């Protein structure tokens, strides 16, 4: 009996120690500190965006012709401008493909990732996204209608945060969306098992404050949402919430075959088949069709 009490007390002490630091680690370590512009083509420009606390977010800008729209990209966790996505898919093909279709691209690593400065901290995602929005707006000649937003996985929360903060882009695409209320809990369950997930869930704080569902309901910016058919980060009951919110906001939502990881990779030109992976030269058809109206 005393041993059980000691064990319970020990667990409680551990949780009390962990409590202040339990912000879900949704931005993972990725990339290197070297950014090679060469792979993005001769027109690629190095970008350095300074945040409110003077952290330098490093990335790339690929210009378009004339008054081309500027697409502001937000990467998934474990993605970096310096190394691509999860070691499988690069970014150069996606960005140069968009450039060939008349769209400029701006993309930077999150703080503490790749060549960007600072320490990884998802709590800075919303404020950092705003500074990137300002950079994209400047490159679009100050016209918000010429800025397009594209977020994948955790990047969908960056997109949602901009819409919540009052950004008014021409359009937005969210691929493999996640919710700030549950992304931490789902991540712990998947990485450490259901027991650890159950024990830590009450102590996990939201990595960002934005409410994806509420934002979709309120926003009148044209939005396309592409969700995976089987996504442990957005299970069926949460997908229903997102779908209902999209319908209320007048947005389009398409459920595509696969899971979270396969959809993330496909967003950057890597398609997983029954036998192996292969490069897919184009965007997903639903996304390609959507963007045609905003070029």
Beta fraction: 15-25%
* CATH domain class: Alpha Beta
Using only CA atoms, what is the Rg? 19 Å
Q: Kindly report the average pLDDT value.
A: 83
Layout of strands and helices, then pairs:
Elements: H1 2-18, E1 45-50, E2 56-62, E3 70-74, E4 79-80, E5 84-85, H2 92-100, E6 104-108, H3 125-139, E7 147-152, H4 155-165, E8 171-175, H5 183-192, H6 194-200, H7 212-218, E9 223-230, H8 236-249, E10 252-259, H9 260-266, E11 270-272, E12 277-279, H10 285-292
Parallel strand pairs: 3-6, 3-7, 7-8, 8-9, 9-10
Antiparallel strand pairs: 1-2, 2-6, 4-5, 11-12
If you had to describe this structure to a student in words, what would you say it looks like?
The chain is α/β, with parallel strands linked by helices and 295 residues long. The protein is 36% helix and 20% strand. An 8-stranded mixed beta sheet has the order 1-2-6-3-7-8-9-10, sandwiched between helices. The chain has a two-stranded antiparallel ribbon with strand order 4-5. Strands 11-12 form a two-stranded antiparallel sheet. Helix 5 runs antiparallel to helix 6.
